[in-house]
Amino acid sequence: MDRSGGKTRHSGDLIATLSGRNLARNLHSDVLWSLGLGIVSGEYAEGTILPSDAELLERFSVSRTVLREALKTLAAKGMIEARARIGTRVLPRNRWNLFDGDVLAWFFELGPEVGFLRSLAEVRIGIEIEAAALAAEHADPEAAAELIAWVDKMAAATEPVEFARCDLEFHKAVAAASGNPFMASISALVEMALTAAFTISSPVNEPEALAITVGVHRRIAEAIRDRDPVLARAAMREAIAQGFERAAGRMEEA
Hints:
The structure is a single chain. This protein is mainly alpha-helical. The protein folds into 2 domains: 3-95, Winged helix-like DNA-binding domain superfamily/Winged helix DNA-binding domain (Arc Repressor Mutant, subunit A), CATH 1.10.10; 112-253, Four Helix Bundle (Hemerythrin (Met), subunit A). It has 11 helices and 2 strands, in the order ααααββααααααα. The protein has helices at residues 3-19, 27-41, 53-60, 64-76, 101-109, 114-138, 141-156, 160-177, 187-200, 207-225, 229-253; strands at 80-83, 87-90. It has a two-stranded antiparallel sheet. A hairpin with a 3-residue loop joins strand 1 and strand 2 (87-90). Helix 2 (27-41) crosses helix 5 (101-109). It is elongated.
């Protein structure tokens, strides 16, 4: 596999570790990752035609079935379009499904930058503050107790990966408690934002930062428990903004 295919393992494993998933390894995923990363990086520029099937088969040393499945997956993500007698064209970026976990991961693999993190934070604020408000209106006592439990686990975490995983589970629990199934659709975006923050700056080894982060998440959980959508919305906005500012500040220092 080429160099971009090799990088797959590091980035993919990190994302899977934080989400608690087992990352399947097969030829399809390797080809998919290499082509997807090539498109996002500009190796295969928007509007251009991908190399022929024969060239790709020679490059990846896979069967035609494996290659076609990878291309179908990229098409489903809005990244390419096959045309008879023309070839497979890379579609404009505004056609890509940026909420897709793989697409986000390919952007992340190129190296998080402040603009990327800001865009993630802006979308999260636009959606997650309303998820918190809805959770405050609809969450039952069991759901509220689960949120408090995740905050307690965040406070007790001693390793960055453990903290990041609890943070992710907290936000997923808020989305579930909202009662709106569409809120869960941004889980990949939240996962990527927290993965990027984890790799850049974790508050676990900074007592003051840890106290601030845990504190704002506890305010979200308590506002939901107390059925206060106004406070839940404000605290969620603050939590997302804090995470972005901490990561952006660390990037500027670096």
